[in-house]
Amino acid sequence: MKLHNRRKFMTRAMLASGGLAMTRAAIAGPAKKGQVIHHVFFWLKNPDSKEDLQKLLDGLKSLEKIESVKQYHIGVPAPTDPRPVIDSSYAVSALSFFDDLAGQNAYQVHPLHKKFVETCSPLWKKIQVYDSADL
Amino acid sequence: MKLHNRRKFMTRAMLASGGLAMTRAAIAGPAKKGQVIHHVFFWLKNPDSKEDLQKLLDGLKSLEKIESVKQYHIGVPAPTDPRPVIDSSYAVSALSFFDDLAGQNAYQVHPLHKKFVETCSPLWKKIQVYDSADL
């Protein structure tokens, strides 16, 4: 069993044993094959507006409640050493994990997501999305 | 303070002030404050070469062994519904989580990472990196 899979197997075994009576938050990595990883980067129309940034963060927080979202992270550019290959020009990022494509589809049409787009899309000038299937 | 850094500072200051009543517990996902999320997208010189793809996947798998990598996912474009905001032109993606900036820095200079770059960089024509600080 490869290291990568072994870690996944161990996580599953731990969960199955009930030894970990924990929330999703404490799980060291999603364990389901075929997970969809949805990463969105936002550029604001008014990048210096604290108010707009706060509105976007508040909107993004609401998406975490969508049932099919299994892991969720809101981020800002990290102060890693600048390199030409790093894009740190965005204002906020949102990373969400779904068990499968159906979960991602359900998210897209969920009332909370629709409300988020309606409320927050006037704030951004650009978004960039990457959807990955976890191998 | 440059515009970019000021924005980061503002976000952190807002968080420190409690303006975001977002507890770590409420976030689904690893709970360590200050985690660095490193997402890299690769475009191959020979996108139709199964061999090159496999070499890159093998190289990426080796990076999981680096101690400071806390969560690791190798992906390919997911078959979500095409939208203009989705970039699905890359061949492979690698998503890694670090507890802090020091962990990411250690990864960059780790012998396994150096070996990966040496072995695999001739395979790619472009990489795009996003480093996010988890809020």
Automatic annotation (TrEMBL), chains A, B:
Keywords recorded for this protein, A-Z: Signal
Organism: Larkinella bovis
Extent of the signal sequence: 1-28
InterPro entries named among the record's database cross-references: Dabb, Dimeric_a/b-barrel, TAT_signal
Domain Stress-response A/B barrel: 36-132
Pfam families according to UniProt: Dabb
Name of the molecule in the record: Dabb family protein
